[in-house]
Amino acid sequence: MTHAREWTDAFVTYYNHDHRHSGIGLHTPASVHFGTAEEVRDQRAFALAEAYERHPERFARRPKPPEIPGQVWIKDPAKRREPEPQGS
Known about the structure:
Number of strands: 0
Helix content: 40-55%
Number of helices: 3
Strand content: under 5%
Distance between the termini: 43 Å
Largest sheet: none
Structural class: mainly alpha
Shape: extended
Radius of gyration: 20 Å
Order of helices and strands: HHH
C-alpha cells in the first residue's frame, strides 16, 4: 500500500506540475490554476518571435504559442448525452 501511494503521489505531482497538456495551450494544470499561464505564454511568444527574426527561413509562417482556453472539461456537460432507455 505504501508503494502504491508513493507512486500515485509522484505521478500526480508530475501530471500537475511538469506535463504540458495540449488541451490547455501546452501549459501545466498548476500553471493554469495558479494564474501563471499568461506570463508563460508571453515568454513563449517572445522566444518564438526572436527565433523567427533570427531564422525566418526555418518557419513556414510566423509562429505563435497556442491560445489558453477559457474553459476546459474532461466531460463537457454541453456535449453529454442522456443514456438510451434500456428495453426489457
